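Hypothesis: this fold can be encoded by more than one sequence.
Test: take the structure tokens below, design a sequence, compare later.
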């Protein structure tokens, strides 16, 4: 059966897209909101701030590693079912974080929560690849990313407010309970998923073998790793830049960071029209060029207005670039999209994990001005790397002899 015939009605797709985006929002908010609450958690659980910072690591490591397991699982048992189970256990684990009273217990639950959160975003992107034809997919992915990345920005803001006026336990409880309304929508979507006729994917090792034989797959994964390395390496220190160089408060920095989501949302609403003019091959170049300009503005003009504009422009450019890279990734293995997306998410996570470490060394040794300069030049180099996408890739059948 063709994709068009198998796809559910457009209205059903839109409802699913909102639900997927909300799930991504919760996962990202849970990940980012803990940073401004670390001091409050340390006091409440009678530990040091440096020890409390291990809660971030306890969440991040399983979130990255388990990406590789959820893809093959989702291709085997169904993407909606995988998201349903992962989001349910994520909600239970997050509620558990609100009620435990020892640091060791919270560490264990953050590990468990990160393990289940890993099954939401890459599997959602694979589901979008199944539900939306390629002409509509970049817009759908950009909209999903605008909702999910809003969780990153707003999570920092909300986490700071909760830490200031309430207890960290309230935030964990709210995020955990909020997952369950989304589960009702996913339960209804399971019926649609069962009606779709899809081929049984080959064994896991065979899927990875096909992917790793493709030069274009290596290109996409290398580009997204570099994107995560450079973008998140610079983005992570923009808050430090605002505090140390512009003398802004943490609360104001949180609000400015939230403007990134505004840019991402605008990008999600305009990407379809842009794609009709420039095509998917050139869109990552444009997005990378926009991000280069954003970092360059912040580097060249040390002012609050420049930082604010930089956040908005970064959101806009990242939406254009990253959403198109994700669109390419959804077509790397059409009969096993979740497996392909799990490698994509792992590559992004690896880059975003290494990026702040490298820029941290630059900041410690040379200062903020050098850091911003290196990131701007690095983003320009990444833009040049995206030129390799202008030439249309070979089809899977042409590039690999193994049929799926």
């Amino acid at each position: 059966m063709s994709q068009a015939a198998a796809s559910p009605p457009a209205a059903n797709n839109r409802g699913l897209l909102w639900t997927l985006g909300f799930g991504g929002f919760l996962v990202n908010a849970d990940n980012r909101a803990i940073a401004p609450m670390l001091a409050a958690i340390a006091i409440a659980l009678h530990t040091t701030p440096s020890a409390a910072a291990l809660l971030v690591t306890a969440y991040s490591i399983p979130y990255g590693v388990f990406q590789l397991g959820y893809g093959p699982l989702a291709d085997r048992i169904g993407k909606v079912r995988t998201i349903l189970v992962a989001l349910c256990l994520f909600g239970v684990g997050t509620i558990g974080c609100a009620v435990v009273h020892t640091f060791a217990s919270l560490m264990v639950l953050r590990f468990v929560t990160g393990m289940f959160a890993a099954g939401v975003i890459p599997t959602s992107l694979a589901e979008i690849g199944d539900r939306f034809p390629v002409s509509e997919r970049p817009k759908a992915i950009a909209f999903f990313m605008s909702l999910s990345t809003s969780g990153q920005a707003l999570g920092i803001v909300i986490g700071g407010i909760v830490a200031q006026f309430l207890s960290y336990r309230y935030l964990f409880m709210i995020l955990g309970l909020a997952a369950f309304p989304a589960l009702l929508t996913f339960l209804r979507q399971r019926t649609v998923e069962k009606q779709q006729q899809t081929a049984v994917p080959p064994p896991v090792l065979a899927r990875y073998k096909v992917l790793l034989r493709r030069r274009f797959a290596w290109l996409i994964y290398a580009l997204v790793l570099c994107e995560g390395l450079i973008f998140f390496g610079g983005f992570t220190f923009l808050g430090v830049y605002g505090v140390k160089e512009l003398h802004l408060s943490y609360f104001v920095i949180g609000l400015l960071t939230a403007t990134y989501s505004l840019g991402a949302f605008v990008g999600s609403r305009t990407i379809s029209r842009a794609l009709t003019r420039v095509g998917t091959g050139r869109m990552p170049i444009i997005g990378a060029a926009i991000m280069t300009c954003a970092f360059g503005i912040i580097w060249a003009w040390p002012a609050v207005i420049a930082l604010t504009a930089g956040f908005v422009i970064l959101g806009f450019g990242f939406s254009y670039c990253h959403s198109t890279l994700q669109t390419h990734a959804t077509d790397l293995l059409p009969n096993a999209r979740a497996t392909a997306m799990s490698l994509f998410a792992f590559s992004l996570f690896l880059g975003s994990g290494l990026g702040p470490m490298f820029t941290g060394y630059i900041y410690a040794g040379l200062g903020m001005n050098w850091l911003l300069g290196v990131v701007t030049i690095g983003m320009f180099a990444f833009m040049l790397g995206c030129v390799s996408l202008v030439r249309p890739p070979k089809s899977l059948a042409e590039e690999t002899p193994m049929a799926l």
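The radius of gyration is 21 Å. The mean pLDDT is 80.
Hypothesis status: open.
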